[in-house]
Amino acid sequence: MKYVFFDLDGTVTESAPGIINSVVYAIKKLGVRMPSQEELTKFVGPPLSESFVKYCGVDPSRTKEAISIFREYFAEKGIFENNVYPGIPELTAKLKNLGAKVILATSKPQLFAERILTHFNIIANFDAVYGNSMDEKYTDKVLLLRDIIAKTGIKEKDLRDCVMVGDRSSDISGARGAGIRSIGVLYGYGDRPELEGAGADIIVETVSELEKVLTGKG
């Protein structure tokens, strides 16, 4: 593959603790229903605006308020309450050495994504970092990926050489909508039925297996 797009949460970083703590902080201040632990975990990956409505019953008119409160905690503490998955730094470095363009494509605001990659000293492993805007312009990952493809100058004939790696259905459906292949990873927060249902081209269980697929050794 010439272009490898990586999701962030649940694909590059194990980010549930910081996201969940930020969600709980926001819920307590909003005074809305506290989701179950299983539902809280589902906040990892999809756009926050959708999750606050779906799992907490937040009125759509209050999603901007909910996100703003979420960021009060996340920007100071939650952003660093996570870890890089073992093997990801080595994999992204290897892909670059093999000549692939390694690009981060996340629904998290780009500002936060860059801070996280810098904090863990892996931002140099990525040729480019693309994320959501602070006003949640790219809640649909199809739009984000199409924008990245346009900005990167990838021609239509080269889309077959692009792949999106992610752990949630939004990553897989985003790839399909943008006309590129997808690899679903099971070491993150999505499960096999979710990834299969979204139409993942390939599903892997570990970072090691992902490396074999991306380097043509699987």
Structural features, described:
This protein has 2 domains: 3-14 and 82-214, HAD superfamily/HAD-like (Rossmann fold); 16-80, DNA polymerase, domain 1 (Orthogonal Bundle), CATH 1.10.150.240. It is 45% helix and 16% strand. The chain has 10 helices and 8 strands. Helix 3 (48-56) packs across helix 4 (63-74) and helix 7 (141-152) packs across helix 8 (169-178). The longest helix is centred in the first third of the chain and has 15 residues, at 16-30. The mean pLDDT is 94.
Write the layout of secondary structure elements.
Layout: E1 3-6, E2 13-14, H1 16-30, H2 37-41, H3 48-56, H4 63-74, E3 83-84, H5 88-97, E4 101-109, H6 110-119, E5 128-132, H7 141-152, E6 162-166, H8 169-178, E7 181-185, H9 192-198, E8 202-204, H10 207-214
Parallel strand pairs: 1-4, 1-6, 4-5, 6-7, 7-8
Antiparallel strand pairs: 2-3
Helix pairs in contact: 1-4, 3-4, 7-8, 8-9
